[in-house]
Amino acid sequence: MLIAEDLLLLIYDDETGKPMVGNPGLDYALAGAVLIELTMLGKVDSAGAGEAVKKDRLIVRDETPTGDLLLDKRLALLVGREGAKPKNVIDKVSKKLRPELLERLNAKGVLTADKGKVLGLFPVTRWPAQDASHELEVRASLESALKLGMQPDDRTAALIALLHALNVVPKVVTDAVDKKALKRRAKEIAESAWAAEAVRQAVAAVQAALTAAIVASTAAGASGGS
Question: Which positions carry the signal peptide feature in this UniProt record (predicted)?
Fold first, then answer.
């Protein structure tokens, strides 16, 4: 499973098939997960001093395909945007990403595509769980790090950092008694030196993109109301 697939499983309710996070938050977080995956595979990185692009900008280390179609489509997109700030590629990477991930999970028998209509008129698809065994393993790793204080592996830490960026950790780990302690632990993991600089920048890019979207939405609302 990709990190983005694990994130999607955590965000979608197993019974209702609805996400607990709206747009653009979830889509940006999924894009960040893809950037993290490509970084961990050695495909993309954060440029250092004296490289072909400015320091801390996106640089492609290896253009060869990963063998995963979803990742390879985004890798090809990033090749054409080398030198960009990580936050400026999040929106592009997120395009059509969630539908692809949902269909993949459906094809794997993990989620079910439950098609219906709202008010008997508007078509809608819910994605309840069909086989939650993998998700339970992911949740066990999350709880080990967040509730028991164990050191998470890089993939678990990435998930925690993305969930923290979305501010949904207490919604995912629902049986924790002390919600504040849970959020503190998630923040501690997200801000620790748990991964390479490029991976941390991918998480920061999600946060920056979310902030920009909120500011733009607020400005549009203020303009429309004047």
Answer: none
Domain that holds residue 59: 3-213
Instruction: Give the chain's domain count.
Output: 1
Contact 33, 162 (CB under 8 A): yes
Residue 44 lies in a domain: yes
Q: Using one digit for the tens of pLDDT, what is the confidence trace for 102-133? A: 999 999 999 999 988 766 667 889 999 999 99
Which residues sit opposite 129 in a β-bridge?
A: 111
Q: Is the CB of residue 87 less than 8 Å from the CB of residue 212?
A: yes
Q: Does residue 111 fall inside a structural domain?
A: yes
* 53 close to 86: Cβ distance less than 8 angstroms: no
Cβ neighbours for 198, distance < 8 A, ≥ 6 positions apart: 39, 44, 45, 46
pTM attached to this predicted model:
0.90
Helices and strands: H and E segment counts in the chain: 10, 4
